[in-house]
Amino acid sequence: MLNQYGPILIFFAIAAIFPIATLAVAKYVRPRPKQSAEKLMPYECGITPESDARGRYTVRFYIIAILFVIFDVETIFLFPWAVQFRVLGLFGLVEMLVFLGILIIGYIWLWKRGALEWI
Amino acid sequence: MALSSDTLFLLGVAVVKVVVVLLVLLTAIAYIVWLERKLVAHIQSRWGPYRVGPYGLMQPMADGLKFLFKEDIVPLEVDRFVYWLAPFLSFTLAMLTFAVIPFGGSFKLFGHEIYLQIADLNVGLLYIFAVTSLGVYSIALAGWSSNSKYPLFGGLRSSAQMISYELSLGLAVVGTLMISGSLSLRDIVNSQTGTWHLAGTNTFLPHWNIFVQPVGFIVYFIAAIAETNRIPFDLPEGETELVGGYHTEYSSFKFAMFFMAEYANMVTVSCIATLLFFGGWHGPVFGPAWLHVLLPVFWFALKVFCFLFFYIWTRGTLPRFRYDQLMAFGWKFLLPVALLNILATSFVVAWIGT
User: pLDDT (tens digit, 0 to 9) for every residue of chain B, 354 residues total?
Assistant: First the structure.
């Protein structure tokens, strides 16, 4: 376990040093002119922002996120199946056809319902 | 617990490998930026960078220094911790995928077999997908923490786009997994050794997965371009509509982090395409023993470079998608094609198996 994942920990530690070190160095070498309220405003092409940015946004994003979860779980199930495919033989093939069949029916239904349309 | 000299030796080797890989990677990223500017410039009949050093070769250093010496503007209403965390995550996660990418065979050093790879996980491909999926967080967090409208829209769009194309990306490689029967990247590459033998003839066609999984490869590569937010799928940072997308409010080195992460991701997906579909480091090997170690690394780098070239070429050629077209393309075309590819592959593999 440690033989396999130990180097990844080392990698993460060394990779994380780079951004921290550069940001720390940048902190001391960069210029610090006087800040003003206008300068620290959120950028909106020169117009003063009217309201808080974190407002409501379209429900499409939620639908995409839900669909993603369904199909991503499917993908994760497919991975071990694909690796063991030759071992499982015909049984594996039929099982996965049933699994995929249900999902494909769901997919067609989603399409028909218009869940995939971006309006 | 006393560490044996063997463990210490392997630990030292691991640290050396990590440092070398990181240094090579950072240099590569810097010079891909140079290459991109130069190539796109030539595609558009311009000169590109040519002032700093011969052929503008010192341009990446100049850019890096400039990032370092720029004023860092942090808008007043940002969520400070998350605002800092997002570029950090983006950069480290982009780097972290390289921990499992094998870039050559192996050689003997003081009686130990040293593999040209940092960690050979038995779930290597799964690890890469897990880490690249985490990359969505950095973009969503950057958009959210900036507390500005353009970054928020850019972040939302980008997250939706990345998760949509991640499905096709994952499904596209299932076919190659069926053929190689392993998730370890080293095993997948080793399963592509040798050449095809068609009815007793000796052919030169290498035993690469691209020849049995062309559809899978095309789906993978299109999804990969979308996953890395590159043209023609660079909606998240479409300048004409969203200013700079999720990194609008970032300046100085924090912006550079996002920038480097984008290029690191490009290198990652090119590496995976090489490993899964183009036989990894396999290629003609000849000459003395040291050449047997170095040539595979060269072939690997060459293949990855071809993909990077293709990326830049696409950028110089294609216009940007519209957002609804992008979503429709991902959900209504790539996803069903990837699913059909899996079904077809499973039938063929089962048929050959029996």
Answer: 556 777 788 788 888 888 888 899 889 999 999 999 999 999 999 888 888 888 888 888 888 888 888 888 888 878 888 888 888 888 998 888 888 888 887 777 777 777 888 888 888 888 898 888 888 888 888 888 888 888 888 888 888 888 888 889 988 888 888 888 888 888 888 888 877 766 666 667 787 888 888 899 999 999 999 888 887 887 777 666 777 778 888 888 888 888 888 899 999 999 999 988 888 888 888 878 788 888 888 889 999 999 999 989 998 888 888 888 888 888 889 999 998 998 898 888 888 876
Residue A119 lies in a domain: no
Do the Cβ atoms of B18 and A10 come within 8 Å? yes
Give the CATH number for residue A64: 1.20.58.1610
Note whether B200 and A108 are within 8 A (CB): no
Q: What is the ipTM of this complex?
A: 0.86
Contact partners, residue B153, CB within 8 Å, separation at least 6: A57, B143, B242
DSSP symbols for B242-272: HTTGGGTT--HHHHHHHHHHHHHHHHHHHHH
Which tens digit of pLDDT belongs to each residue from A32-43? 888 887 777 777
In chain B, what residues touch A6 (CB-CB under 8 Å)? 11, 14, 119
Q: d(Cα B320, Cα B325) in Å, to the nearest integer? A: 10
Using the beta-carbon criterion (under 8 Å), do B146 and A42 form an inter-chain contact?
yes
Q: How many domains does the structure of chain A reveal? A: 1
Contact between residue B99 and residue A8 where contact means Cβ atoms under 8 Å apart: yes
Range of the domain at A31: 2-113
Chain A residues with CB under 8 Å of B258 CB are none
A19–B327 CB contact, under 8 Å: no
pTM for the model stands at 0.89
CB pairs under 8 A between A and B: 207
DSSP secondary structure code for residue B197 in this structure: E
B92 vs A90: CB contact, 8 Å cut-off?
no
**Structural Rg of chain A based on CA atoms:** 25
Contacting residues of B for A20, CB less than 8 Å apart: 88
Are B266 and B311 within 8 A, CB to CB?
Answer: yes
Q: Is residue A41 part of a domain?
A: yes
Q: Tell me, yes or no, whether A49 lies in a domain.
A: yes
- Location of structure tokens 């040519």: B50
Classify residue A118: in a domain, yes or no: no
- Using CA coordinates, name the residue in chain B closest to A31: B71
* A75 three-state secondary structure: helix
A110 to A25, A71, B161: CA distances (angstroms):
52, 12, 18
